[in-house]
Amino acid sequence: MDSKKIQMPREVHIGADVIDNTGSICKDLRFYDDVLVVTGPNTLKIGADKAIESLEDEDFAVDLSKINDATSKTVEKIEDKLNNISLIVGVGGGKVIDVAKMAATNAGIYFVSVPTAASHDGIASPLASIKNNKGSVSMTAQAPIGVIADTNIIRNAPFRLLSAGCADIVSNYTAIKDWQLANRLQNDSYSESAAALSLMTAKLIMKSSKSIKKGLEESARLVVKSLFSSGMAISIAGSSRPASGSEHKFSHALDKIAKKPALHGEQCGVGTIMMMSLHGGDWEVIKNALHDMNAPTNAYELGIDPDDIIEALIMAHKIRPERYTILGDRGLSRDAAKKLAIKTGVI
Ligand SMILES: NC(=O)C1=CN([C@@H]2O[C@H](COP(=O)(O)OP(=O)(O)OC[C@H]3O[C@@H](n4cnc5c(N)ncnc54)[C@H](OP(=O)(O)O)[C@@H]3O)[C@@H](O)[C@H]2O)C=CC1
Ligand SMILES: O=C(CO)COP(=O)(O)O
Ligand SMILES: [Zn+2]
């Protein structure tokens, strides 16, 4: 059998105000040289300033880069700033984390992930979703050497971000169904342990759907831990297969089509409702759980034109065509797409 590499973080810190220990955590991880902090326009004040203060207290020389998107161009711009830098600390949402992760991987240096929101399961995964002229590409990257998830920052983030993270985890249900289908029909390699971990995480979030509340530290902690374990399923699989199937293709298609796309997790959640219906599964249970978590369940709540939903459904199978899903090679016809969106109440 072929050998297999599984990359996981060395240290994971989850708790209130752990961001104030960023400097000492980086010291414990044996870093001493210059550090580049990558962040976003909103997350600079919310998280990066605190991380920088803590790093400077421990005598790190800190440089700062603000980014607005997760494109290959932005990754290159960050790489150009890496002279004498031995560590990148990414402080922000999914885009910031992906750019920091990818730039560190390309430059052969280490990366510490400091999520300011529990909105996606790339917090600790060895993948980065980077956009280029072909759309979103899931690229192999190194896993962060450390994760510092401050539950005080995360619980105070807009609740919409936490709901999106829950929906990104709920999408594991259809991702696993698609993966199993691809294994049966295309003999795609399949990992029982990665699938079991992914499903267990999705079940845990569904079970807790009514108790995830705005502003609660326990809720922030639960979702961060779940996103982390979903990321570990990705690590075990060595691909995003356990957490990304047809519902993610739909979301990636919407990112291309919609004038103002919604959050990644929100779109994936709505995609899960429809793809679960295509799989012949209980899509109403998914829809109810998303509703309980305050996540959007239809085009109106997503803020997306119903016509764009139909177009995204029709286009979805063309996104990453090598990844076989319930959408098959030909995808949905316009009539079938419309019927599906109406039946599930998405439009
Ligand atoms: N690599 C992987 O395995 C995975 C990657 N992804 C990728 O992650 C991205 C989605 O991540 P997501 O976080 O939803 O989107 P963004 O990174 O775009 O973040 C959404 C917004 O939330 C803001 N924000 C973050 N934290 C806070 C906070 N504490 N308070 C106020 N605002 C905050 C950000 O601010 P700012 O403007 O400062 O950035 C941004 O404006 C997608 O590109 C997706 O493809 C998703 C899943 C897995
Ligand atoms: O979003 C992801 C998992 O939740 C990553 O998946 P992609 O490979 O579709 O970018
Ligand atoms: Zn996702």
Automatic annotation (TrEMBL):
Annotated residues for binding of glycerol: 121, 168, 248, 264
Official protein name in the record: Glycerol-1-phosphate dehydrogenase [NAD(P)+]
GO molecular function, one term: glycerol-1-phosphate dehydrogenase (NADP+) activity
Pathway listed: Membrane lipid metabolism; glycerophospholipid metabolism
UniProt family annotation: Belongs to the glycerol-1-phosphate dehydrogenase family.
Subunit structure: Homooctamer.
Taxonomy of the source species: Archaea, Methanobacteriati, Methanobacteriota, Methanomada group, Methanobacteria
Residues reported to bind substrate: 121, 168, 252
Binding-site list for Zn(2+): 168, 248, 264
HAMAP family: G1P_dehydrogenase_A (MF_00497_A)
Name of the encoding gene: egsA
PANTHER family xref list: GLYCEROL DEHYDROGENASE, GLYCEROL DEHYDROGENASE 1
